Amino acid sequence: MDSPSIQFTRDITNIGFEDYSAVIDHYIEHIRDLSYVKSVYQMGSIKDPGISDLDLVVVVEDCYDPLKINLLSVFRNSIHDKAKDIFLHDIYLYDQHSFKQILYSNYCDNIKLIHGVDQKMSIPDRLEREVLSMQFIFDFVASRLVQFQQFLASGRISQRGILVRVSSIKHSYSLLKRLGIEDSEIEDFIAKVEKMRREYEKVSDSEIQDTFLASFYFFSKIVHLASRYFVGKYLNFHTVPDASNRLKFNSHFTVKFVDNAPDYYKIVKNEPTVYYPREVFFHYLAYIESKSLFAEMAKYHLCFSGDESYDISENYTNTLYKRLEILSDHLSFLDLNKADFSMRGIPGFMISKDTDRKSKIFKSHSSGRLEMNIPSPVQSIHNKTLDRSVQAESLARIKSYCDFSVDSLDFDMKLYEQWVFTFFPEWQKRYGHILNKKIVELFVTFQLLGLQVEDEYLDAAGGINTYADRIKCKNRYLQGYAVSSELRSFLGPEIDYIQGDAAKIDLPDESVTKISSHHSFEHFQGNADSDFIKESQRLMQVGGKCCIIPIFIADKYTEVTRTSRPECHYDKDSTYLVDSTARITGGETCGDYARIYDIPSFKKRVVDQIDREKFNVSLSEITIDGNTVPDFRLQCHEGITEVNYPYRALTIERIH
Fold it and tell me: Which residues of 227-240 are buried (b: 16+ CB within 10 A; e: fewer)?
């Protein structure tokens, strides 16, 4: 078979050791005065300046504050003009509890403290290190093979990206050597890659391509060698799986089993399918036996045909369960802080979900200038109870029951792009994708309010995602329950900040012309939702408007929290739902609470609170170029609840 056609980007820049030191120094200076940052570690070494990427691990105290956490991102803050050339990805972020166990959750062969206090990592014992070596190989190589297949499907690959990632075969092989397994063929390949890194200016595109394609063979060979060790020492079959591949996976998978994957990978096909020895996936099936968040994730992906009978040794399972608990704690910490910029460890079977569909979408959009993200391969581990219990109500049904304007509202994509480029030129670094729901919310309220220079503008229950600091208005107010010094510093002194309850805003009657609220209304507890509707009417001048987005209307009136707290069940007419995986509650910063209306409760608690003689009311379902938003396929929207789709905006306009 002929090798697939691949185009390479020459993206290695002339960077010296002093540049790495300068970037590290600038980052340390950036976070030095942040009291919640306890330590910064550097992972790995800078052997080949210009090719080596910089891996930083930041450890913070055990707290939950997304506003503070986002200050730690390399790409979302101005650190240094060469940071983008030195970092291939953003920081690794841990709380103190998770970091102490990092050697159980991620492979860290070389980690050194460069700022703060030594966290005294827990060291796995000899037997645990052996077991972890196999687990890291299985999970790491699974994710890398899928990533490389996606590169192959896209047809465009960066020279630096390949030289960085192909060298990770060395890391996998070092784990294999922990098991006492050595292979001269793999060692020769590693030596070849290391020479290419040192002499990258002399390396041709054809040599890069040959090395890239060969990496499939060597990664899969490492897995097979580890698999044999795993089967021989830790896995015992009572009934041996036959050639019919009786391991069963759901429809999201495109995993295939072959008897000799290394031989298969000597000729790499241009397809996004991961081939593995059957035995490795008994390791993955063991995930579902754990009592951890990752076990719940695994149950969405893996199942058992019922014909196989096997045991995995107690030593292996004990270490596996310990690792899964640590991974789960870390994942929960990142999610509660909405730290979507941070690198996280996810087992290989999760990353390999739906690779076929993913690659097709990647190929179809790879030439588009705005397609900076491709659909997430990870099935949501969030809102698992909520998404089964509540479904968004159709617009037609809402319209049939309501006596005010209910309709679709479509915006032109070119208008949207122009607005984003004007008001949020840093959108790519800050939000990842131009259609990130946060930007969409801001665009919609800006358009519906028709903001002008003479307006008195109020962003109610506002925060860091606002345009209050970017528009020209007579006066600009930002109201929040707790307006931190970090927020004031970020947005600047030209805004008037009002701290307190959104239901009792410290402004005179008829003092504002335009009011917006972005993704906050659902968190208003008690009767604050109804009271805010009344308060906005008090504040509005004739001709003024208030726009709230999103409005959640579903088939069941529901109050949601992550932890069972009776005081969060404010309305006895609602269904009180506890979902520990819910993202819609917003965590501690949003009171760990969200309200989802049905049609009767929306009319009662919102519409009936509006003086219809003085105010017009409209509910709009938002589309952009005919496409409903937000787009669930985008990686930046991973974890949002299904009831968050489609976006609906409520507009209240004072006419008398």
Answer: bebbbeebbeeeee
With CA atoms as reference, report the closest residue to 98 among 366, 332, 392, 417: 332
pLDDT in tens, 276-317: 666 677 788 788 778 777 777 676 566 555 555 678 899 999
Helix (H, G, I), strand (E, B) or coil at 499: strand
**How far is it, in rounded angstroms, from Cα 595 to Cα 561?**
9
Confidence band (pLDDT; 50, 70, 90) for 68?
confident
Q: How many residues does the chain have?
A: 656
How far apart, in whole angstroms, are the C-alpha atoms of residue 505 and residue 460?
9
Distance between CA 220 and CA 214 in Å, rounded? 10
Instruction: Answer for the pair 406, 398: CB distance below 8 angstroms, yes or no.
Output: yes
Q: Would you give the distance in Å from CA 233 to the centre of its chain?
A: 37
Sketch out the chain's domains with CATH numbers.
17-123 (3.30.460), 126-327+335-351 (no CATH), 402-550+605-654 (3.40.50.150)
258: which residues sit within 8 A by CB, 6+ positions away? 264, 275, 276, 277
Q: What is the mean pLDDT of residues 470-488?
A: 92
**For residue 405, what are its two tokens?**
């304007």
Cα–Cα dist 192/222, whole Å:
17
Answer yes or no: are the C-beta atoms of 268 and 299 closer than 8 Å: no
Q: What's the mean pLDDT in 13-19?
A: 85
Q: Is 120 helix (H, G, I), strand (E, B) or coil?
A: coil
**Are 197 and 162 contacting, i.e. CB atoms less than 8 angstroms apart?**
no
Q: Report CA Rg, the chain.
A: 27
Share of the chain above pLDDT 70, in %: 85
Report the distance separating Cα 169 and Cα 243, nearest Å.
29
Chain centroid offset of residue 398 CA: 32
User: In the predicted model, is pLDDT for residue 371 greater than 50?
Assistant: no
Asked if 380 contacts 634 with a C-beta cutoff of 8 angstroms, the reply is no
Structure tokens belonging to residue 425: 């030129």
Tokens 């860091």 locate to 464
Output the pLDDT for position 133.
94
Q: Average model confidence (pLDDT) for the chain?
A: 84
Please name the amino acid found at residue 140.
Answer: F
Furthest CA-CA distance within the chain? 84
Three-state DSSP class for residue 340: coil
